[in-house]
Amino acid sequence: MIVVIGAGAIGLAVAWRASQRGLPVTLVDPEPGGGASHVAAGMLTPVGELQYGEEDHLRLGLDSRDRYPEFAAELADLTGIDIGYRREGNLSVAYDGDDLAFLRDQHDFQASLGLRTELLTGRECRRLEPMLAPSVRGGILAPDDGSVDPRKLLRALLAACEGLPIVRERARELVVEGGRVRGVRLESGEVLAAERVVLAAGSWSRELADLPVRPVKGQILRLHSPYPFLTRATRGLVRGFSMYLVPRPDGELVVGATQEELGFDSRVTAGGLWELLRDARTLFPGITELEFKEVKASFRPGSPDNAPILGPAGPEGLLAATGHFRNGILLTPLTADAIADLLDGREPPEAVRPFGPGRFAPAEAASPGDDR
Ligand code: GLY
Q1: 39 Cα–ligand 1 center, Å
Q2: How many Cα atoms within 13 Å fall on the side-chain side of residue 369?
Q3: Deepest of 57, 230, 268, 355, by most Cβ within 10 A of its Cβ?
Q4: CA 244 to CA 223: how far, in whole Å?
Q5: pLDDT tens digits, 247-306
Q6: Choice from 49, 300, 306, 330 to test ligand 1 binding pocket (greatest atom count within 8 A of CB)
Q7: Whole-model pTM?
Q8: What is the number of the ligand 1 atom nearest to the C-alpha of 328?
Q9: Is the Cβ–Cβ distance between 218 and 257 less than 8 Å?
Q10: Which of ligand 1's atoms lies nearest the C-alpha of 327?
């Protein structure tokens, strides 16, 4: 038996892919389809959000982004649920001269890596997104990036996992004997026997295994527009601060997100909301007319290098699928395929090889492929 701890997007997708290969899987989660996945915005923007020094992350993100069309089509065929995958491009816009200088550097960096992006004037940005403020100075269009609706994704993955046992309890600890995983002790004290365990518990993974994952709090809000407000996911730089807006065809507009190192502090704060709305209004003055629907705080599973931790970890039989930080939804299709490969005794895709847990313990093996 394989136990997957965590039934967010990553855990559910791993369970689905593993069960497609005929592997026996049980999911453990007190709230399947909840956690950070339920709060996520759903940006698929490895190019638009590229950071200096993260070329390996870029390869990972591009590989997973490009799996989405097939992944979405397969889920729709199986479950009848459209997960709202759209490849409408990603726009980054600059508010002032310093923000624009930063975006110009970013465009040079993207071009140096052979990525397809376009530097736009303020007028060109407004032609793409007419609700943008006249003061916006310029931007970058990354035409191959896109978005997905994480709540529809979760519904589809839950439907795809129908028939698999789901234990609605928190996992308290791993049961390890002789250096091997033997099972999972649940909150009730009951032990679920398992030869292999996939740890996909997001920020809570550290409570179950020795992995350098920490919660990075994000506050995020949802508005509703009765008329088309925005066409594509748009990232704004406003006086050096970064925020984003993600529109959906049904009128939902997600505005995110704060990034706070406060442990498991789940409070929504006036200051967090104010910062998001202040910058959103600076870029899109019309936002104040929209209906407020929801605000939530959740926890991104951060790792020391902002990249996921994928592969054999600690006791034999344990596989990590955690630490996805800001990119859990983006990296869901690739993570699921890679972990299913490892469970199935196959080589995982090349892009995941730099991201084994061993990279944080130099004496040990350093990649999912080498760790086995
Ligand atoms: N992926 C966006 C965020 O973490 O805020």
Answers
A1: 10
A2: 8
A3: 355
A4: 13
A5: 999 999 999 999 999 999 999 999 999 999 999 999 999 999 999 999 999 999 999 999
A6: 300
A7: 0.95
A8: 1
A9: yes
A10: 1
